[in-house]
Amino acid sequence: MMPEEQATVVATYSRRMRLRLQDGREVSARIKGKRLKPVCGDRVRAEPIDGERDWLITAVEERRSLLTRPNTRGDPEALAANIEHLTVVAAPKPVPDWFVVDRYLSAAESIGIPAAVVYNKIDLAEPDGVVQKNLDEYRRIGYDVIALSARTGSGVAELARALIGKTGIIVGQSGVGKSSLINKMAPGAQQKTAELSPKVAAGRHTTVNSVLLSLPGGGAIIDSPGVRDYAPALEDPAEVARGYREIAAAALDCRFHNCRHHHEPNCAVKAAVSAGTISRRRYASYLRLLKLTESLDQLR
Ligand code: GDP
Ligand code: ZN
């Protein structure tokens, strides 16, 4: 019998997987047992099956991060593993919803991964006053901010550079250009998705759950409808401040360690907002997410 090998899950179709072996070869695979639940991005152990083309996944290695989303029953469902970077995309069209951008960034904070804000479609319109102000704010608090055009390619290399050696995801409102950007950075991405499907699904027509697309410069993007529309799960209200990094930093000086930075006295966050070191827009966005999380928390 051939020894087990380490492999990476590069595509999933419910319980069918496509693996990349260490020598770069890609094979299709089944999963041993019901308890094992590998997802795209997982490092697994696998072995060939005698007389079959399929391999068998026998174990999932420890994950460094896991992206989950509540399924229709409200249970957390794994979307992708070992994500190391999040890119949130906004554009002049559709009109940017900065609250959505903030929520994605707060998801990145809670997973504990770096994030970049991309402003796409600069061939349509360069960032205007308000947009520029918001982008400058993100840059000031430490996020990579990249203005680019997936259509012309201008600025795309800068994003590709930020992703070198990392496995990332690309999120944002529908229509901002996520698919266009993925296709620009990972040539053949669309085709790869289409090609993989029939082979692995053995004649049946199943849609791809998710794929890991290698970038020419090194690094990869995990893509799937579920990941693209990833709605960060709302955490405990006490956790909301952690998703706003400049608020979390200022909160160290609040009088109460459980300060929610709303009506409490001696609040260092409110002081920083008054002094102008924390932006009013981001503070209002924080209060909005806090309120939303509190109202959902009361339903539980
Ligand atoms: P997604 O829903 O975020 O995946 O967005 P798509 O990639 O499907 O793009 C939505 C629309 O925006 C499509 O009509 C694209 O052709 C268009 N689009 C994407 N990127 C650009 C860009 O950089 N410039 C312009 N002018 N249009 C773009
Ligand atoms: Zn406070």
Helix content: 25-40%
Q: Compounds present?
A: guanosine-5'-diphosphate, zinc ion
Which percent band covers the strand fraction? 15-25%
Rg, Å, rounded: 21 Å
- Structural class by SSE content: alpha/beta
Describe the structure.
With 300 residues, this protein is of the alpha/beta class. Helix content is 31%, strand content 25%. The protein has helices at residues 98-111, 129-140, 156-162, 178-185, 189-201, 225-228, 245-250, 268-275, 280-299; strands at residues 5-13, 16-21, 26-31, 43-48, 55-60, 66-70, 76-81, 85-90, 115-119, 144-147, 167-172, 210-214, 220-223. A 5-stranded mixed β-barrel has the order 1-2-3-5-4. The chain has a two-stranded antiparallel sheet with strand order 6-7. α1 (98-111) links the parallel β8 (85-90) and β9. α1 packs across α9 (280-299). The longest helix is centred in the last third of the chain and has 20 residues, at 280-299. It is globular and about 70 Å long. The relative contact order is 0.13. The structure holds guanosine-5'-diphosphate and zinc ion.
Features:
about 300 residues, alpha/beta, five-stranded mixed barrel, two-stranded antiparallel sheet, 9 helices, about 30% helix, globular, binds guanosine-5'-diphosphate, binds zinc ion
Describe how the helices and strands are arranged:
Layout: E1 5-13, E2 16-21, E3 26-31, E4 43-48, E5 55-60, E6 66-70, E7 76-81, E8 85-90, H1 98-111, E9 115-119, H2 129-140, E10 144-147, H3 156-162, E11 167-172, H4 178-185, H5 189-201, E12 210-214, E13 220-223, H6 225-228, H7 245-250, H8 268-275, H9 280-299
Parallel strand pairs: 3-5, 8-9, 8-11, 9-10, 11-13
Antiparallel strand pairs: 1-2, 1-4, 1-12, 2-3, 4-5, 6-7, 12-13
Helix pairs in contact: 1-9
The chain binds guanosine-5'-diphosphate and zinc ion.
